[in-house]
Design brief:
This protein is of the alpha+beta class. It is 59% helix and 20% strand. It starts with a helix and ends with a strand. It holds the Pfam family Ribosomal_L12.
Length: 102
């Protein structure tokens, strides 16, 4: 009798709502908003151009940018938006580098 007096939807609505809310949380955690631009490798003839380009989107000096590029594969820019990262990748690929967005 206790089930009939509680109402038809009150018993199952609590667990269903909890499961739906838990699913929404999992979906929002999967969306990545900050990316890293990773220089995989580059054409040796384009090294100077790549160093100049790395300096243009970082605040590194010439020596620091050179050291960073020479130790490829390495992350050259952290925490960028997808749009900003894709722009950097296009410029570096055009110069002869292999670059990925992580």
């Amino acid at each position: 009798m206790g089930l009939k007096t509680a109402g038809p939807g009150s018993i199952s609505s609590g667990p269903v709502q909890s499961a739906a809310q838990g699913g929404e949380v999992a979906v929002s955690k999967a969306e990545k908003t900050a990316f890293d631009v990773k220089l995989e490798k580059f054409d040796a003839g384009a090294k100077i151009k790549i160093i100049k380009e790395v300096r243009s989107f970082t605040e590194l000096g010439l020596k620091e940018a050179k050291d960073l590029v020479e130790k490829a594969p390495c992350v050259v820019k952290n925490g960028v938006t997808k749009e900003e990262g894709e722009g950097i990748i296009e410029k570096l690929k055009h110069l002869g580098a292999t670059v990925v967005l992580e």
